[in-house]
Specification:
The complex is a heterodimer. By secondary structure, chain A is an all-alpha fold. Chain A has 9 helices and no strands. Chain A is 84% helix and 0% strand. Chain A is globular and about 70 Å long. Classes of the chains: A mainly alpha, B alpha/beta. The interface between A and B is medium-sized, with 17 and 25 residues.
Chain lengths: 223, 248
């Protein structure tokens, strides 16, 4: 018992390394606050562009989405991170990470938004166009508000995935939560920091999971 | 003296969907303040004809002159044109995420770019015209079918259109709710609105229409005053159709 507490729930160690963990948490939070909105914006652009049904453009968009949905995100991250400098693009590591995440997450968000847009009947669009709204105005004021509502559970569960993905950035030494947890573990020869990291992730994600299941129950009830 | 310019003037309008010829050369002129009523069996091209009038469908050939302007010509700003052509759909197509007032004011805000207060004022006036001023803040799913259709009419009326297109506005309604929508249409007619109406409400046609057109298989088979069409149809197809819908 004592050994268990010493190894996994060691308060003394936690006190010693908590600045590291805080720094990691802060980085993870920043990553999420950048990656999620960027991914959503990218996904929206993809889905809205798709909805205009320009043949060559849709062909490109499908190729983009298919490619990045089937490409392992960790491989993508490493490729972008080490590949960009190789082709002469020296960008800060955060930017490299953001580019990799944007390419990946926008393809997933794009598919979700596309499904949402396609769930809205033609009549809504025609009513809007018949009053003189442009195609883009119709999208923004009539189609998207309903589409987003229809796919809200999918958007949230994808966001959960994206937040978990940010831990991948530890592989390229971005000082996010997991990375800092492992640094702390290395310094103290004690796994307690990793347990702390796990608990922080749980605290971050659990409210979102709750929100999601409440939403899902509500949509079930409506059916 | 030249004849006054028709509000709508269709010349040789054709529309094909792949191999299906939905409109086979329609000529139709709607005068100012006229109510033209279109009847015909399902699939005869009535909806397609209305939808060609505001280019929800692009005609394959022919001309559509609205107030003397060819709305098919390349230079036309179709969004600007559409706000002068109101359209009412069989399935209402209210925006479910907006209140009645929100439905009516969306185009006022985004197309006419009216400030919120002006749009709301004009929106309330339009809802008042259809007898729904006190339901301005109701959501579409809180309204009966008849009320929803009247909100849809108000949404078109708020833009102060020069002509109104109705595509079976009462077909989706329970019988007891049809009257409230027809009352609104009658009032519009009396206030001088130009109207092109596709409907099966023969009683309304008799009483309110200037002219009735019978369409079948993408063509106008015959047209004339309501009494003439209903009492002495010249064509066998018209007689057959009328016998089926009136049930004797
Ligand atoms: N978007 C479309 N694509 C293919 N065919 C269509 C489309 N719209 C209408 N049609 C066809 O055109 C014909 C006329 O349809 P429509 O104008 O809806 O008739 P109505 O309103 O008189 O019932 C029908 O044969 C219908 O199947
Ligand atoms: Mg029809």
């Amino acid at each position: 018992m004592e050994a268990l507490i010493y190894n996994f729930f060691n308060l003394e160690i936690l006190l010693k390394v908590h600045p590291l963990l805080l720094k990691g948490f802060w980085m993870t939070l920043q990553l999420c606050l950048l990656v999620v909105p960027l991914g959503i914006a990218g996904g929206l652009v993809v889905a809205v562009a798709y909805s205009f049904h320009v043949r060559w453009l849709n062909w490109l968009l499908i190729a983009y989405v298919d490619f990045f949905r089937s490409f392992p995100p960790l491989v993508l991250l490493i490729l972008v991170f080490y590949g960009l400098p190789f082709i002469g693009l020296e960008v800060p590591s955060l930017i490299a990470v953001l580019i990799a995440f944007l390419l990946n997450t926008a393809s997933y968000y794009g598919e979700i938004f596309r499904a949402g847009i396609e769930s809205i009947g033609r009549g809504q669009r025609e009513a809007a166009r018949s009053t003189g709204l442009t195609g883009l105005q119709t999208m923004v004021y009539v189609v998207l508000p309903q589409a987003v509502r229809n796919v809200l559970p999918d958007l949230i569960s994808n966001t959960l995935e994206v937040i978990k993905f940010t831990a991948l950035a530890s592989v390229v030494a971005l000082p996010e939560l997991l990375r800092m947890g492992r640094v702390a573990q290395g310094l103290t020869y004690n796994p307690t920091p990793l347990i702390a990291v796990a608990l922080i992730y749980l605290a971050l994600l659990w409210p979102i999971v709750r929100l999601l299941s409440r939403l899902e129950r509500r949509t079930m009830a409506k059916r | 003296m030249t004849a006054p310019l028709p509000m709508l003037d269709l010349k040789g309008v054709r529309k094909s969907f792949g191999a299906i010829e939905a409109l086979k050369g329609i000529d139709l002129s709607v005068a100012r303040q006229e109510l033209v009523f279109i009847i015909g069996p399902s699939g005869s091209g009535k909806s397609t004809l209305l939808r060609c009038c505001n280019r929800l469908e692009e005609p394959t050939a022919g001309q559509v002159l609205f107030d003397g302007v060819d709305i098919l010509s390349p230079g036309i700003d179709i969004n600007e044109t559409r706000r002068h052509i109101g359209m009412v759909f069989q399935s209402f197509n209210l925006y479910p995420h907006l209140t009645a007032l929100g439905n009516v004011t969306l185009a006022l805000r985004r197309v006419l770019k009216l400030p919120r207060d002006d749009a709301n004022e004009r929106g309330r006036a339009a809802l008042d015209e259809v007898g729904l001023a006190e339901r301005a803040h109701a959501w579409p799913n809180e309204l009966s079918g008849g009320q929803q259709q009247r909100v849809a009419i108000a949404r078109a009326l708020a833009l102060e259109p020069k002509v109104m297109l109705f595509d079976e506005p009462t077909s989706a309604l329970d019988p007891e709710l049809v009257g409230s929508v027809l009352d609104v249409m009658r009032a519009m007619r009396e206030s001088g609105m130009t109207m092109l109406v596709v409907s099966h409400e023969m009683g309304f046609a008799r009483e309110a229409a200037d002219r009735v057109l019978f369409m079948d298989e993408g063509e106008v088979v015959e047209e004339g005053a309501p009494a003439r069409i209903f009492e002495a149809p010249a064509h066998a197809r018209t007689r057959e159709f009328l016998r089926r819908v009136t049930g004797h």
